[in-house]
Amino acid sequence: MSEALLEIRGLTVGFDVPGGRLPAVAGIDLTLGKGEILALVGESGSGKSALSMSLVGLNRGPRTHIGGEVLFGGRDLVGAGEKELREVRGKDIAVVFQDALAALNPTQRVGDQVAEMIRTHRRISKRNASKRAEELLGEVGIANPGQAARAYPHQLSGGMRQRVMIAIGLANDPAVLIADEPTTALDVTIQAQVLRLLKRLQRDHGTTIVLITHDLGVVAEVADRVAVMYAGRIIEQGTRDEVLFDPQHPYTMGLLSSVPRVDGPAVSRLPAIAGSPLTGVARPDGCAFAPRCTFVHEACQKQTPPLQRRYAGEAHLDACVLDEAGRARARGALEEVAQ
Amino acid sequence: MKTAILHKAGTPWLIAKRLAAVPLVLLGLSTMVFIAMRLLPGSPATSLAAGGASGNSSAAEITENAEKINAALGLDKSLPEQYFSFLGDLLTLDLGTSFYGGNSITALLGEALPATIELTVAAMLIAVLIGMLTGIVAALRKDTWIDTTTRAIGTVSFSLPWFALGVLSIVIFGVWLRWLPVIGRLPNELDYQPFTNFVLLDAIFQDRPELILPWLEHLLLPAVTLALSMAGFITRIVRASVLEVLGDDFVRTARMKGLSGGTILRRHVLRNSSLPIVTVLGLQFGSLLGGSVITETVFSYPGVGNLLINGILQRDYPIVQGAALAIALLFTLVNVVVDLLYLALDPRLRKA
């Protein structure tokens, strides 16, 4: 991993819900390197969005409790006031949201929405901001940027809207771009185009990208590093190849074996991980995945296993108490199921 | 880029369609009023005959006089004949003359309609101002005591009937405190030579700024009376629609851009939450006109509502028909404006 750009220390996010406080993020340490694409993988409700939104306080509110530290550019963004945070938002850290149709203002021309992002952080005339907005729309691969800039979101196709969203994210050349499931609402060919676009941006601008996704195909295509989340914690973390080809945690193994393979035998039914993730307020001691894990034993229920290097490569961390032999058995068993 | 073609071509067509419906609405309405008036018990002739005979005449005399009057007013003809002559006159914009004074209805409406427009527009402005402000504050302070109090006051003012509010404000501000005049539109002693019959416009055209203050003083109580219940309603609608938009994804996008709360409210929230508000304003304008009939009567304000009530009491068919038509025209035009506002506010509706 290259030079550290943003450091997350002991981050917790809790939402007040009827019946208690939901621990969406239950203590996460994570460092973002300069210019890397980090994929945050996990099921819905695993806390990946809560984690990324709390980096710039977008989920702040009377019912949200954010703890820990997010160190960026010499300040702690968790402790920062709203006014201080406003300077970071959109300028240093920007977000590309999923479902661009909902994330764009339906009553504003898209060119103006891009220009607004520029004008919020730079002293620039309206006319120049509009010109720059058109350039950005061209840069993200919109064929006729002048015309698109004057269009309203509903007049554009889904792929073009997502490109507009990315243009907004890029407008101030941020150090970190959080892309929250940017390809979920798109069909496969457009998905590939958008992913290539993100990859190009990382290369040309050196932008650090946090890519939130539940699609392992997306991860394989663009990610440099992967962090797998489960029930508010990272349970495995490493380079893309380490995590995809040498998974350490039974949950990661399960995720991988549930992906259909072009080169594998045809199966009538894909293997799935039994049970469902913890969604309630109560979190029993021990590994959160234990209730669903085929290889569960006593040690799993004693305490939550910390994320650390265990049996794999130097930067390949996991949070599973299985020993080497146990992991090999688990891998073998899952491969059998897949066949 | 096919999808990015702007749909501006549809807009004039939409407007034309909307305007084309106006005469149809008015035709339907005038027919209904025509029939309704003639279904009412009592007739203009008997009212006139009984009134003219100063209470001493016998039943036979009244009947005899009534027949003469009927013939004079053309009410002895068959209903279809009366209806078609009414429609024929309407086509030439002739609304007929009052059965009583013989005044031309167009002239009467020319005086009364501007007064009613002044009253309803003033009420609308007050209601929108109060309703928007309180609604926005309530939404931004959701679930605090400010929110609860605002909503409680809104509900109470929404439930107050106009006549009660009118009488109450007359008693308090006119009789007890003596702060404001409670009758009419301008003081009698003021020499006002109407030109447009809109006092504000006349004050400007005739260079008579001294008209404005007494006019506002007379307008204030009836307008506030009319506005309060509507304001309570607007508060609730504004609060609900602002809250809804605040939860929308594009508001989060605006926050992500680093915009301040005020800018987000002005630039992103208000415009998007104005759609349901504008709809409600158009519909509420109808009940505002209904309320103006009552309010004008309570405050002896010389508007169309006052004209209408007197016309009904005296069975003065042409006045009632003319006044109803005027009110309907006002309502329809306001709703055409609402539809146009809709198109201006939401580009998604501009597709034909």
TrEMBL record, chain A:
Location of the protein in the cell: Cell membrane
Pfam families: ABC_tran, oligo_HPY
Origin: domain of life: Bacteria
Membrane topology field: Peripheral membrane protein
Start and end residues of each ABC transporter domain: 8-256
One MF term in the entry's GO annotations: ATP binding
InterPro entries tied to this protein: AAA+_ATPase, ABC_Ni/Peptide_Import, ABC_transporter-like_ATP-bd, ABC_transporter-like_CS, Oligopep_ABC_C, P-loop_NTPase
Key words, A-Z: ATP-binding, Cell membrane, Membrane, Nucleotide-binding, Transport
Family per record: Belongs to the ABC transporter superfamily.
Protein name: ABC transporter ATP-binding protein
Native organism: Actinoplanes couchii
Automatic annotation (TrEMBL), chain B:
SUPFAM superfamilies recorded: MetI-like (SSF161098)
Top-level taxon in the UniProt lineage: Bacteria
Pfam families in alphabetical order: BPD_transp_1, BPD_transp_1_N
Main location: membrane
Keyword Transcription regulation: no
Localisation: Cell membrane
Residue intervals passing through the bilayer: 21-40, 119-140, 152-177, 219-238, 275-299, 319-345
Keywords, ordered alphabetically: Cell membrane, Membrane, Transmembrane, Transmembrane helix, Transport
Membrane association type: Multi-pass membrane protein
All residue ranges annotated as the ABC transmembrane type-1 domain in the record: 113-342
InterPro entries listed in its UniProt record: BPD_transp_1_N, MetI-like, MetI-like_sf
Family: Belongs to the binding-protein-dependent transport system permease family.
Protein name: Peptide ABC transporter permease
Species the sequence originates in: Actinoplanes couchii
Lineage per the UniProt record: Bacteria, Bacillati, Actinomycetota, Actinomycetes, Micromonosporales
